[in-house]
Every structure is written in structure tokens, then in C-alpha cells.
Amino acid sequence: ADNPTHIYKKQGEKAEITCSHQIDNYDQILWYRRSKNNEMKLLGYMYVNANTEPGVTVQIGGEKYTWSDLDFFSVRLEFNVQCLFTVTTTEAYFGKGTKLTVLEPGRKPVQPKVQILNPSPNECRNQKDVRKRKKTLVCVASGFYPDHVSVHWQHNGNNVTNSTGVATDANAQMMEDKFYTLTSRLRVKYEDWDDEHTFTCIVTFFDGEDYVDIPAEIKDKTKPKKIT
Hey, which bits of the chain come out as E strands? Predict the structure, then answer.
């Protein structure tokens, strides 16, 4: 397990990430940096002794089999760090990773504003098959910094899974005002588009200390009088 999941630090501050496991006979722990385009770079590894890759400004310490610490002393960019447990001749396991963000000078975390945009009244008008008629809800999280957010949807208080019509941006986009925006889309059945069904978009934001849920619900569910 990688601990913690998210970290904010100012430039020059030390960030410590701990990786631990309880898998018998797994005697190597490797540290990787994952970029936003999912490229993986080996930072170093723990096997009897700590070893770092050339040009990597980290310190690694710990005990074989039980835990390993990764200390960053000179941080200059944002990236994800993951640890990998392995033994030479068997399957390897990745931890979930820690997202480390170096805050820009003078900036503090700012929570997102969240809203759900109404679907187009013309959507699915020309779909003859009632079973295939869908409405698309768009959840917009905007004005936040940094980009430590996740999104999930609820239908009548129950979580909606990705396999049932959810599509969320892979990464938040930084806008001209230096704040981030992220969108998520939910496809719902046309027959569910009434006042008996509640759709909620919940954006979870890490503010440096706690995870804060910011919910938004769709307000107007007016249907067109007739679908042709």
C-alpha cells in the first residue's frame, strides 16, 4: 500500500511516501514515477540495500520484506509515484500510487464549483426505438487548484459504475486563469428523465488535509412534449 494517496508541497519542501506490504517472500520494492501520459520511469529499488537510478534526486530507505520510504528533497514538478512489489520469478504487484503536487509560489488549494448542465431538448428526438433513447448529463467542475479531484455519479442515491454510461476526462485541464476544469458525462435512459429520478454528480477534492465532497444535482427535468 502507498501512503498517503495525495500530497501537496511547496518547492524545496521534503515529501515522504511510504510503501508497505505483507506478501510472503516478496523481497524487492521498486519505485516508479508515472507521468500524466502514463509513462513509467524507475526511480530506484530496495533489495537488501537501497539503490537509486542515476540522476534521480530521491533517498530510499527501509527494510526488505516489510516497508520502504521514498523521500523527495528537491521537488520541481508534479507526478505520480507508485511502488512495485516483486520477487525474481513470480508475478509483480503495483501499489495504488501517491499523487504529489508542488504548489506554485503564493497559491493555496481552491475547491471546485460543480454544476450539471441540462441535456439538449433535441437529443434523441429522431430515435424511433424507445429503448435506445438516451439523455446526456454533463457535470462540470471548474475553478479549482490543484487538480486533485475525482468524480462519481449517483442515481437515486446509488453509485453509478463506469460500465453503465459514465465518461470522465482522463485529466483536468488548466485554463487561462490558471485554474482547472474537469468534465464528466452520464448517459441516462429517456424514461428515467423525470422527477421520480435524481441524478447527482459528486466531485471529491483533496484540500491538503481532508477529502471534501462537492455534490450537484440536475434541476430542470422538462421533457419535450412530443418525441417524433
Answer: 2-3, 6-10, 15-20, 28-34, 40-47, 49-52, 58-63, 67-72, 79-86, 93-94, 98-103, 113-117, 134-144, 149-155, 158-160, 166-168, 173-174, 180-189, 199-206, 211-217
